[in-house]
Amino acid sequence: MRPEALDIQDRVTLSSLPLSAEKRASDSQGPSFDQVLQESLQTVDHLQKEADQAMQRLAVDGGMNLHKTMIAVEKADLSFRLMMQIRNKIVEAYQEVMRMQV
Question: How far apart are CA 39 and CA 20, in angstroms?
Fold first, then answer.
């Protein structure tokens, strides 16, 4: 029995959802902070759903390789932890702005 080769293309990126050509054409300065944040959240959500599906396939019918399942779970965990750190930095910046005296 030969183990399946792991896909090297499994990389975690927060901007894996590319902007459409129409959005790029309309935004000559690039995407707004809100768009980047929404796309990042969608990417994290997508990775979480993929990890859940991989775990279900492994548990129910064994149709998923254990290594690929663990990689999917770790990708989801890493992206979630990164998003939490970004959220913490945003909250800290907001609190710093609120402490400023006018």
Answer: 12
**What is the rounded distance in angstroms from the CA atom of residue 50 to the CA atom of residue 58?**
12
pTM beyond 0.90: the answer is no
Q: Rounded to an integer, what distance in angstroms lies between the CA atom of residue 17 and that of residue 13?
A: 9
Domain coordinates in residue numbering, the chain: 32-99
Q: Which pLDDT tens digits describe the chain residue by residue (102 residues)? A: 444 444 444 444 444 545 555 555 555 688 888 899 999 999 999 999 999 999 999 999 877 789 999 999 999 999 999 999 999 999 999 999 999 988
Question: Among candidates 2, 1, 3, which has minimal Cα distance to 67?
Answer: 3
